[in-house]
Amino acid sequence: MEALQSWVSEHKLTSIGTLWASAIGASLAYSRAKTPLKPSLRLIHARMHAQALTLAVLSGAAAYHYYEKRAGEQGDNASPN
After folding, report:
1. Cβ atoms of residues 53 and 25 within 8 Å
2. What is the Cα–Cα distance from 64 to 71, expressed in whole angstroms?
3. Which pLDDT tens digit goes with each residue over 17-26?
4. Which residues form the HIG1 domain (predicted)?
5. What is the reported pTM?
6. N or C: which end of the chain has fewer CB within 10 A?
7. What residues contact residue 53 under an 8 Å CB cut-off, 6+ apart?
């Protein structure tokens, strides 16, 4: 798990782009199988799903970074004298 975290931290944009492309592909595959929509509408829905997922992941990453940084600052302030 630590190796995955270090790779993602080194390749942030690649990770987000891969997640976005995977979400579009999954949404297109799901909508093709379940709903009789025109291809243009499928693409619009897939983009919306991928953007929502990307925003959720970015929000989670920002929260993780904030709390990690905050915990590091508290650890520095609690050093014994």
Report:
1. no
2. 10
3. 888 888 888 8
4. 1-76
5. 0.61
6. C
7. 19, 20, 23
